[in-house]
Specification:
4% strand; two-stranded parallel ribbon; mainly alpha; globular; 40% helix
């Protein structure tokens, strides 16, 4: 389906962004196994690999509520953050899968009259920069 560009859609009207993915995940009774093991417990980004149906459902709930823009589940999917779980080498895999899941949800809900879009989420890292060299 051809749809107008995000840039053009923004010129036409205000678009609604989805809500907080992390908050939605926290409302589900998950265990360490849901994340791929106790050592990955709390790594929400791993859920795109271990529980993709959950992430898909959350995206779809936002779309059903009227969101025009769906953020990927990639807030902490940088190699710097993922290194805390020793999975920094999976950053590309996680980001690609998160985009695929969000795109599938958007494709399911987009219509010519109401196109939906995927936007990438990128949060701050868990590290701070130092100007003193430490």
């Amino acid at each position: 389906m051809d749809k107008i560009s995000l840039h053009d859609a923004l010129k036409q009207r205000i678009l609604i962004l989805d809500g907080a993915m992390g908050t939605m995940i926290q409302q589900v009774d998950l265990t360490g196994e849901d994340f791929g093991g106790e050592d990955l417990d709390g790594c929400n980004e791993m859920l795109v690999l271990t529980r993709p149906e959950l992430i898909q459902r959350i995206h779809e709930e936002y779309l059903e509520a009227g969101a025009d823009l769906i953020e990927t589940n990639t807030f902490g999917a940088t190699s710097v953050v993922l290194a805390e779980y020793d999975i920094q080498d999976r950053a590309r895999e996680i980001n690609l899968e998160a985009a695929r899941i969000a795109k599938a949800a958007v494709d399911r809900f987009s219509t010519p009259e109401s196109p939906r879009y995927v936007v990438g989420a990128m949060g701050p890292t868990t590290k701070t920069l130092s100007v003193t060299g430490e």
